[in-house]
Amino acid sequence: MPEVSQRSARAHSSPIRKLAPFADQAKQAGKQVWHLNIGQPDIRTPENALQALRDARIDVLAYSPSGGVPSYRQKLPHYYQKFGIQVSPDDILVTTGASEAVLFALLACLDAGETVLTPEPFYANYLGFAGMAGVAVKPLPTSIADGFALPTVADFRQALSPDVRAILLCNPNNPTGTLYPEAMLRALAEVVLERNLFLLVDEVYREFCYGDTPFFSALQLPGLEEHVVVLDSVSKRFSACGARVGAIVSRNHTLLTAIRKYAETRLSPPTYGQIFAEATLDTPEQYFQTVKAEYQRRRDLLFSRLSAMPEVICYRPDGAFYVFAQLPVDDADRFCQWLLEAFSHNNQTLMLAPGSGFYATPGQGRQEVRLAYVLNCDDLSKAMDCLAVALQQYPGRSSVVAPAALYSMS
Amino acid sequence: MPEVSQRSARAHSSPIRKLAPFADQAKQAGKQVWHLNIGQPDIRTPENALQALRDARIDVLAYSPSGGVPSYRQKLPHYYQKFGIQVSPDDILVTTGASEAVLFALLACLDAGETVLTPEPFYANYLGFAGMAGVAVKPLPTSIADGFALPTVADFRQALSPDVRAILLCNPNNPTGTLYPEAMLRALAEVVLERNLFLLVDEVYREFCYGDTPFFSALQLPGLEEHVVVLDSVSKRFSACGARVGAIVSRNHTLLTAIRKYAETRLSPPTYGQIFAEATLDTPEQYFQTVKAEYQRRRDLLFSRLSAMPEVICYRPDGAFYVFAQLPVDDADRFCQWLLEAFSHNNQTLMLAPGSGFYATPGQGRQEVRLAYVLNCDDLSKAMDCLAVALQQYPGRSSVVAPAALYSMS
């Protein structure tokens, strides 16, 4: 038998997927499993966009242009304008989800063997894409103690070894829900300019900001036109993860020309998804207000419930629909499996994403979990009932380790 | 300004796309441009599948499982069964077009720096995917003199340097339309076994076989269960290039497990496309018979018209919807541009794909072009009228160089 490549053998494997068989077994045994493990929104997709698909007149389901359907690209700047982001259609390349945007950006900004620096914990799939692109991920520690705030400029400077060609952020952050304020991004911009780096920013949760801090896009940073590459997607914004439509936005046209070669190689993003995505741009503003209010209620509920649990360390996240919490357990991977395998409360249990999967640094995230608030408040409340009881019953209960000790910067 | 990666700067750029601005100019000048340059079928997409999309009841456009919608995967073996291919749903992983299937297969079968061997001329985008995967493409010459038949076993053996981990075929072939008969594949299988290689076969044109030679899938080769990886797509089969749904089919589950990690990283193939693709499986057999008869008429017309042109070298292709022809011109890239820029016949011209783009060997394909017969016979005939006149008028007319001299095996 020919052997699979070494890179695929050592490729990142999703920590959530490993738990999937246990969730299936729990369901087969008749248990209600509350899914807080995946960022798949439960909110209804906008009806106007679903209807656009039904109304589309198609004789031949043809390739779209590699960079995206022109009418969609033409309209996108109006969407960005609402956030004070000035871009032209020429600054936008439509991709097959933000997933492809991440891969293309890594391929075009970094050569194999070079390094991308990213605050940790980070979106687990960045590791997978980096592996595909042959790029190393260098994690820069952040801590639950300050709500996973962006590291200081000094921390970034210290971490910038010569192999680092790009910094990758997710703002608002998955998995922590942390929103990076304008001042932090402006401070980081100086480092980016000084070291002539690419600044890749995944802004797919742009709409989901709940506090007083307004969202500030990296595309609004003056003087960084050649450095900033924004990775985007309609998945979370419109509860449309299955559309597989995203975008790369950058004013660096030399970079976009390079990326366009990758786009041409894969021919085109999905045509149906783009028809859908174009129609989402006509979604009434009321939709977002309702959706945002709903997520904010859930966040408040989750934060208040978690805060009330003894020895659970938590913070109030300002964005996205995640919270990262530290639990009094020996090992969150084990605890999450136990929840599905051995625990039940009123014949219910919950599925969480173990924190370790969001770290590249071995041993980190051992007591942490990511909770996605993609359930309505009633269900979320039942899930929290389960969690409270589970933490009392779990045989591996263990005191929380102070964040500073758990995560040394050395 | 930060510099783009060296790999993206030297990435393969589509030779057809370079001509696109000239085609646009010709159209703006009021010329009718017959497009024989791209494999975008003009045949209507099956109505039952288009209707399935209109009828789909979706509240939340969610991610599908990474390996594809289960009901679609369950039905696919029945499709393959029609070709005598015995596979189970567990042998199939749904991808975002064959494009993604090629990329994932290269990543999982080869490490960066290793080599894939493929007969030349080959589908131009293989070069792009190889670049993304950091894999080298080693071309194995084939010649128009024998209709681009598969090289002999001796040729393959000679080309198998130690860095070669896989052989990549396209059968029926894009860009040549050549169909590889069973006997040739069986002979090659011995080499694959002997050298313990992966055999990647792009079979997206499986339906389009016109001669007496039946299609024979690499999945039908006995003893090669661990070696064969078939790359597939609904794009050509159902005139549905925009669906972006393909598949990787292999009985090597160690390989599929490795590939599944890449699939999980990019989350899921497009949901709409998969609803469409599942519905295509209920397309009446009559659809294919009509479509195949139509393509066969076009092939016959194209072959007879090309054969009648002085000094044009051609062969009768048995599959796909392409023919590769050698023209009496100094440089096909120049000729193709001249067709769009300077030529017109009854205010019409045609767009062809220059042969050089399908070769990795520098200087090859200089007198060759690929013609895709994706126009109805009337339009195809008008396009051939244009070509006949153009070859008379072209200032760079030049005798055809004998294939043997043009393409030495050294």
List its traits.
homodimer, 410 residues, alpha/beta, Aspartate Aminotransferase, domain 1, seven-stranded mixed β-sheet
What is the succession of H and E elements of chain A?
HHEHHEHEHEHEHEEEHHHEHEEEHH
Task: Spell out the CATH superfamily of the largest domain in chain A.
Answer: Type I PLP-dependent aspartate aminotransferase-like (Major domain)
* CATH architecture level-2 label of the largest domain in chain A: 3-Layer(aba) Sandwich
Sheet having the most strands of chain A:
7 strands, mixed
Number of strands of chain A: 12
Distance between the termini of chain A: 43 Å
**Which residue ranges of chain A are poorly predicted, with pLDDT under 50 across at least 5 consecutive positions?**
none
* Fold-level CATH name of the largest domain in chain A: Aspartate Aminotransferase, domain 2
Q: Helical amount among residues of chain A, as a percent range?
A: 25-40%
* Beta-strand proportion of chain A: 5-15%
Oligomer: homodimer
- Kindly report the average pLDDT value of chain A: 95
Largest interface: A-B, 82 and 82 residues
Specify the number of helices of chain A: 14
CATH class of the largest domain in chain A: Alpha Beta
Structural class of chain A: alpha/beta
Cross-sheet strand order for the largest sheet of chain A: 2-8-7-6-5-3-4
Whole-number tally of structural domains of chain A = 2
Structural shape of chain A: globular
